[in-house]
Amino acid sequence: MILLDGRQTSSKIKEEIAATVSKMKQHNQRVPHLAAVLVGMDGASMTYVGAKVKACELVGFESTLIKLPEDTSEQALLKQIDILNNNHEIDGYIVQLPLPKHIDEQKILMAIDPNKDVDGFHPTNVGKLTLDLPTFISATPYGIMELLERYDISTSGKHVVVIGRSHIVGRPMSILMSQKRKAGNATVTIAHSRTENLAAITKQADIVIAALGIPEFLTAEMVKDNAVIIDVGITRVPDNIKKKGYRIAGDVDFESVSKKASHITPVPGGVGPMTIAMLLKNTLQAREGFGDAH
Ligand code: GUN
After folding, report:
1. How many whole angstroms from 87 Cα to the centroid of ligand 1?
2. Minimal CA–CA distance to 278: which of 7, 14, 3, 4?
3. What's the CA gap between 279 and 52, in Å, rounded?
4. CATH number of the structural domain spanning residue 128
5. For residue 293, what pLDDT is reported?
6. Quick check: is 113 catalytic?
7. Among 102, 169, 197, 210, which lies 20 to 30 A Cα-Cα from 21?
8. In terms of residue numbers, what domain contains 244?
């Protein structure tokens, strides 16, 4: 069994980005600048955004963190977005999700300038993705594609089962892997909460991508020998033994599934670290532009 090491791979990508930034500096070019908007004090969101800002520093990007109170109105947030859209010093930005319940998430995401949408959530960018046009690919699916590529995992003609149809992971993942691209050309099945006989389907998969958000859902009986397993889950499960009072659990029962898998991502240290590296990659892309196609 080979562990797909997201920590090591993301470090390598960050080194590559840092080298590019260093060249930009040598040529007196402005370095990429990422901004992040955080509304409220959600613990997990604060951790993620903090990690994103820290990663910017590591590779030599400029970063701006905009923290807004929980009771920020939708209108005030839209105003902030307008400011970011018109700030030419900022190449790309993200609005950390989830947003407080009184704010319409879709309305906010639609207001982001697609050229600065380094999360790849705007309908324009999702549309471009589905049409094979160059665009920002959202960080988690992009990170998984990069892991598969860098570990030379053969996907062409293989059966991939994606569990979960979320806009952030499952749906884009199913599109990417069916496309004519490296780590693509796969036969893709997208399974979800209404799928009947899920185990019979996952048992046929050469590659399983578990992105449903239920801790340790995928067990050894559900996978075939030598399958490639990608675990996207990151649920906080209460655990009194841990100092923080919780542990991070994936969607895969690593203990049993790792004995059967040819390759598997650990949690933590698999897909998670890749997402930050790919957000940086998108920000670099935002700085450089997509040329005429964008
Ligand atoms: N919340 C969980 N994942 C993400 C992400 O990739 N981007 C943003 N903006 N919010 C998130």
Report:
1. 22
2. 14
3. 8
4. 3.40.50.10860
5. 46
6. no
7. 169
8. 139-272
Q: Is 71 helix (H, G, I), strand (E, B) or coil?
A: coil
* Residue 149 counted as domain residue: yes
pLDDT of residue 96: 98
Q: What is the pLDDT of residues 177-192, one digit of tens each?
A: 999 999 999 999 999 9
Whose CA is closest to atom 4 on ligand 1? 97
Instruction: Examine the residue annotation and report whether 8 is marked as an active-site residue of this protein.
Output: no
pLDDT of residue 292: 53
Q: Please tell me the distance between residue 140's alpha carbon and the centre of ligand 1 in angstroms.
A: 9
Residue 132 is among the residues annotated as catalytic for this protein: no
Considering the domain architecture, whether residues 120 and 185 belong to the same structural domain is answered as: no
Domain count, the chain: 2
The residue to which tokens 């920590």 are assigned: 7
153: in domain: yes
- How large is the angle between the packed helices 271-288 and 6-26, nearest 10 degrees? 20
- How many A from CA of 246 to the centre of ligand 1? 21
pLDDT of residue 294: 47
What's the confidence (pLDDT) of residue 183?
98
